[in-house]
Automatic annotation (TrEMBL), chain A:
GO MF terms, alphabetically ordered: structural constituent of ribosome
Residues in Small ribosomal subunit protein mS35 mitochondrial conserved domain copies: 167-237
Cellular compartments per GO CC: mitochondrial small ribosomal subunit
Name this protein carries in UniProt: 28S ribosomal protein S35, mitochondrial isoform X1
Coiled coil: 264-291
Keywords: Coiled coil, Ribonucleoprotein, Ribosomal protein
One GO-annotated biological process of the protein: mitochondrial translation
Biased composition (Low complexity): 23-41
Source domain of life: Eukaryota
UniProtKB/TrEMBL annotation, chain B:
One of the GO biological process terms: mitochondrial translation
Places the protein is found: Mitochondrion
Origin species: Tursiops truncatus
Role played: Mitochondrial RNA-binding protein that has a role in mitochondrial translation.
Protein name from the UniProt record: Small ribosomal subunit protein mS39
A single GO cellular-component term on record: ribonucleoprotein complex
Protein encoded by which gene: PTCD3
Similarity annotation: Belongs to the mitochondrion-specific ribosomal protein mS39 family.
């Protein structure tokens, strides 16, 4: 044992004779400590304990019917030695193939969902069923839900990896309610719509209140409910100055007392006067069928805008009114 | 199982909700709803002016759970991955440890990195003040180890005691006394506590795990190692209580002493191995008509067992006396009392058996639930010696029947020795059913925690696996093999040899190359006995060439050679050379087999007779007389008695040319004895005369 310490700098072919001959001429000061067998398992053949050799990847030992969610129970980076799939990723060089999975940075960079296979998700759902309560049996359709619970609240929670669990985006609260489920009469509804402005969507009849001015979600929720309550009560009240509502403030066209009514009455009266037919008074004129029809067509034209239907209706009613057909 | 879990985690919230009154759905401020994964939750709500439907909408009561309930529920869906290394290691083929020493050193490296980081943070706290963790995590912030109060006062003394600075607090105490201020009884008591706990030395900054591990390699894990950890109780090894040390001095200086002071001193003395002094102090305590508390009694019981030069019966009587005094002083015993009694009974060997059972009955009568340590002591007591020929008791079966399905929580520092001793008993009794019972107990609930540190785990599993190899069917054994090795423990060569013998018994020798490949991975490349065993089993009978025995043999040969290249001490054995050559021949790899012959000569080992015959056969099969002559030359070189028969066979089976015959003649002339000498001489004469 004494003679055979060859120095670490010598790495040659392991021909025992030459090595032995060389080592005897080397001074004993350069001998390296003899590695014990248990630490040299994975060293190379060349004497000193060189770099460890890697084990074969453990995909070789995996059974085909193993429990995959146990291998990847949580979100973890892609481990090529643990994923038994021959995945390739990367832009191939000319006449080459995409790179293999070992040491592939592209596979590491992207988020992987190996921990959320359908089997795993099914198991998770089974386990989480215990935390859920039964859905009420009476609420079996969307309409019933809307009927019993007209107000809908949207909140979002955020989870991220880091030392802090707070996220300022989590304080936003959105309240949605259909105005048809609120008890509003015509004036109240119009006043409410004027009060909220942009927050009301006419096509779906939904009022949306989004609050984020308070620092906490609970506070924002309280504030949203408070706003809804205040709007409701305020819209039922009628103030003094509301009586001064002019035609420019009207939301929709009202034919009564409008210039169109005046015009048509004047025109008809003039026509009647020209025909020397003064028996009909204003009210009677207004009550006639043609005028009614004219009124309807003008209202629809003004309220709904110009389209084929309304324009042709207007044309018919004018023709009938002026006895042009 | 799901139902059980839910019962544990969920509490149905009381008193909440019902339909359609102005109820607020608790979307805000309740822990559950804020624990959703990112996404929106639409919670329906009823407006105050609420719609009342014709049918009643019954909203169920909301469930509440604690913070980790959801995680625990999800964790119950996954199991252990049998191919993975323990989670503490990096999951990379290069970085997974391959032996128990490596795994230990990796864990130590990781821990030392953490310690280094903590050290830096605590040395320079002003650079680590920024706290972005929300909610606040106190253990990430730097700790202050230096006392802040500088003046000489009782508050300063209390601070130093709190910071565990033994020497500084003793100095402060002395300074206070010199300055004439009286130190209150409480502070003096806490100072005594500090001194007695640490045995008048500074608390060591090394961590426990660096000191304890001497029985790492499983080869040394015998009964002896069961006792070694006991001697290392307490973190200072060999801290003994010196007479007239600081604690005693301060104790003597105290103007008034209450029961607490005496108790602390007694416990400190016992902990640091001064039992006689402890007992003396106890008599002094009684003289002062004070009462001791239950912990002190526990220490005293231990002290009586440690007193030297007394016989076991006397010690037991002393212990009984102490117990009577305990009753007289109205001190209720606790679990530690009984465990200490059992621990002491262990030292009394045979006479301790009956009192141990009595103790156990007493414990149950009082209503104290025994912990795993209790059962461990009982097992140690009843199964102290390994030889079952003495008629071992059946108490292990009673114990296991009682423990089935129970979940334990840590109550005694020696709780983690139970499984090791139980498995040892199972192994010595050769009872596989019992071993399965023990293993089931280990897997109930959280009992895995009680498997103990690494060396105990290895001991447990190697005994378990050894028993499996011995007693269980080979398929089941192989399943356990795949499951346990190497993810749970690293086998040592004896375990693998047991496995190989089990394979032999079950006639499944074709799995040997697989086992060899696996064992190379966890560090058995150079274990000679394992390789010998493998080669012997492979070479013993003829096998069909589909089993890759020759490849395996070539692999083993290369390991021998690489080992050779590193040291001149020859590691070859004659038998291994024999086996390898035979395997090559049987597989038809004659080229390599012939190279083996060269190795025989090189290492000066003698080939076996059957081997030479087989070589002869193969030479005949290949029809090359030169090879046959080689063999005969080799036999002659070693002066083997078989040389004669080989020569005859050579002459009979082969047609030799003239030079060959002459060369053969020379050879036989040189090496054979007188008879063959004369015959060859006569041959030569005949040849010459022609």
């Amino acid at each position: 044992m004494a003679a055979a310490r060859f120095p670490a700098c010598l790495v040659l072919q392991p021909r025992a004779r030459s090595l032995r001959a060389f080592s005897t001429s080397v001074s004993p000061a350069t001998r390296s400590p003899r590695p014990s067998p248990s630490t040299t398992e994975r060293t190379s053949r060349y004497g000193r304990p060189l770099r460890r050799k890697a084990l074969p990847p453990r995909t070789e030992k995996m059974a085909v019917d193993q429990d995959w969610p146990s291998v990847y129970p949580v979100a973890a980076p892609f481990k090529p030695s643990a994923v038994p799939l021959p995945v390739r990723m990367g832009y191939p060089v000319k006449r080459g193939v995409p790179m293999a999975k070992e040491g592939n940075l592209e596979l590491l960079k992207i988020p992987n969902f190996l921990h959320l296979t359908p089997v795993a998700i099914k198991k998770h759902c089974e386990a989480l069923k215990d935390f859920c309560t039964e859905w009420p049996a009476a609420l079996d359709s969307d309409e019933k839900c809307r009927k019993h619970f007209p107000i809908e609240i949207d909140t979002a929670g955020y989870v991220s990896a880091g030392p802090s669990i707070r996220n300022p985006k989590a304080r936003v609260v959105t309240l949605r309610v259909k105005l048809s489920s609120l008890n509003l009469d015509d004036h109240a509804k119009k006043k409410l719509i004027k009060l909220v402005g942009d927050r009301y969507c006419k096509s779906t009849d939904v009022l949306t209140i989004k609050t984020d001015r308070c620092p906490l979600k609970r506070q924002n929720y309280d504030y949203a409910m408070y706003l809804l309550t205040v709007l409701y009560h305020e819209s039922w009240k009628t103030e003094e100055w509301e009586k001064k509502k002019t035609e420019a403030d009207m939301e929709e066209y009202v034919w009564k007392d409008s210039s169109s009514e005046k015009n048509i009455l004047e025109t008809l009266l003039q026509i009647k006067a020209a025909e020397k037919d003064l028996e009909l008074s204003k009210e009677e004129l207004l009550g006639t069928e043609e005028v009614e029809e004219y009124r309807k067509s003008v209202v629809s034209l003004k309220n709904e805008g110009d389209n084929e239907n309304t324009l042709s209706q207007y044309k018919e009613s004018v023709k009938r009114l002026l006895n042009l057909t | 199982m799901a139902a059980v879990h839910s019962a544990r985690w969920l509490r149905i919230s009381r008193g909440l909700c019902l339909p359609l009154m102005g109820r607020r759905a608790g979307v805000c401020g309740r822990a559950p709803s804020s624990r959703f994964y990112s996404g929106s939750a639409a919670v329906p709500e009823v407006e105050g002016a609420g719609a009342t439907g014709t049918e009643e909408v019954v909203i169920p009561k909301k469930k509440t759970w604690d913070k980790v309930a959801v995680l625990q529920a999800l964790a119950s869906t996954v199991h252990r991955d049998a191919t993975a290394a323990p989670y503490a290691f990096q999951d990379d083929p290069y970085l997974i440890p391959t032996s128990s020493m490596e795994s230990h050193s990796f864990l130590l490296a990781k821990k030392s990195g953490e310690n280094a980081a903590k050290f830096i943070i605590n040395s320079y706290p002003k650079y680590f003040q920024k706290d972005i963790a929300e909610p606040h995590i106190p253990c990430f912030m730097p700790e202050y180890f230096e006392p802040q109060i500088e003046d000489i006062s009782e508050a300063a003394l209390q601070e130093r005691i709190k910071l565990r600075k033994v020497k500084a607090s003793v100095d402060m105490f002395d300074q206070l006394l010199q300055a004439g201020t009286t130190v209150s009884l409480e502070t003096t008591n806490s100072l005594l506590d500090l001194l007695c706990y640490y045995g008048n030395q500074e608390p060591s900054t090394n961590y426990n795990f660096q000191q304890r591990e001497q029985a790492e390699e499983l080869e040394e894990a015998t009964e002896g190692s069961n006792e070694k950890p006991k001697k290392k109780a307490g973190h200072q090894l060999g801290v003994t209580w010196r007479a007239k040390n600081n604690a005693e001095r301060i104790f003597a200086l105290m103007p008034e002493k209450n029961a607490h002071s005496y108790c602390t001193m007694i416990r400190g003395m016992v902990k640091h191995r001064a039992p006689t002094q402890a007992l003396n102090l106890y008599t002094e305590l009684l003289n002062n008509r004070l009462r001791a508390d239950v912990h002190t009694f526990n220490s005293l019981i231990e002290a009586t067992a440690f007193v030297a030069n007394e016989k076991s019966e006397e010690k037991w009587n002393n212990i009984l006396d102490l117990l009577k005094q305990m009753v007289a002083q109205n001190v209720k015993p606790n679990l530690q009392t009984f465990n200490t009694i059992l621990k002491c009974l262990r030292r009394f060997h045979a006479i301790g058996k009956l009192p141990a059972l009595q103790t156990l009955r007493e414990m149950k009568a009082i209503g104290i639930e025994p912990s795993l340590a209790t059962y461990h002591y009982i097992i140690q007591l009843f199964y102290q010696h390994e030889n079952p020929s003495k008629g071992s008791s059946l108490i292990i079966y009673d114990i296991m029947n009682e423990l089935m399905g129970k979940k334990f929580s840590p109550k005694d520092p020696d709780d983690d020795m139970f499984f090791q001793s139980a498995m040892r008993v199972c192994s010595s009794l050769r009872d596989l059913e019992l071993a399965y019972q023990v293993h089931d107990l280990l897997n109930t609930g959280d009992n895995r925690k009680f498997i103990g540190p690494d060396h105990r785990r290895y001991f447990y599993y190697s005994k378990f696996f050894g028993l499996l190899c011995l007693m269980e069917q080979i398929d089941v054994t192989l399943k356990w093999y795949k499951d346990l090795i190497p993810s749970v423990f690293f086998p040592h060569s004896q375990t693998l040899i047991d496995l190989l013998q089990a394979l032999d018994v079950a006639n499944r020798l074709e799995l040997i190359p697989q086992i060899w490949k696996d064992s190379k991975e966890y560090g058995h490349t150079f274990r000679r006995d394992l390789k010998e065993e493998i080669l012997t089993l492979m070479a013993r009978d003829r096998h069909p060439p589909e089993v890759a025995f020759a490849d395996c043999a070539a692999d083993i040969k290369s390991t021998y050679e690489s080992q050779d290249a590193r040291q001149t001490a020859p590691s070859w054995l004659a038998s291994s050379l024999n086996h390898i050559a035979v395997l090559f021949l049987r597989a038809g790899r004659t080229q390599e087999a012939w190279k083996m012959l060269g190795l025989f000569r090189k290492h000066n080992k003698i080939p076996g007779n059957e081997l030479l015959n087989e070589f002869m056969d193969s030479a005949k099969a290949s029809g090359s007389p030169a090879q046959a002559i080689e063999i005969v030359k080799l036999a002659g070189a070693f002066s083997l008695p078989i040389c004669e028969s080989l020569t005859q066979r050579l002459m009979a089976d082969f047609t030799l040319s003239q030079e060959q015959k002459e060369a053969l003649g020379d050879l036989t002339a040189l090496t054979s004895d007188s008879d063959s000498d004369s015959s060859s001489d006569s041959d030569n004469d005949v040849g010459e005369s022609k």
